[in-house]
Amino acid sequence: MTETVARPVTDPLVQRWVPPVSLVLSVLGLAVSVYLTIEHYSSSTTLACPDTGALNCLKVTTSEQSKLFGVPVAVLGLLYFAVMTGLSLLWRSPRPEVRLGRLAFAGVGVLFVAWLVYAELFTLDAICLWCTGVHVLAVGLFAVTALGTAYADPADLT
After folding, report:
1. pLDDT given for residue 157 in this prediction
2. pTM, two decimal places
């Protein structure tokens, strides 16, 4: 009796678009995070975002929630997207710790986004459009990373 071994479902079409899309999302997130970091340290009000009502970038980026343990959230975003940019360049790595590390890091990023969105909606009563852009990029990056990891064929990675 021959036993068949279950292999993950592979889709070469998914694999072709995953690396460049994850790289583009990472680089865009890095660019916006660099801008937000510069704005944080320059104390500038050039965020090009309305400062009235629910849309108020300045209120969000200067709030108590704009820092975590004294580190500006913009800097954390910059570090996150810098690491994800590097990991997006390693899609063909045969090392499982790279694939799982990329997925875990993307997961941590999306959990952090959930906390930030909660803070914007329920603590600050204000939304930052630049921050929302970063959130969308991080969630998209997680989705692409999860799909790319789920459809990865270990044989394709050697």
Report:
1. 46
2. 0.84
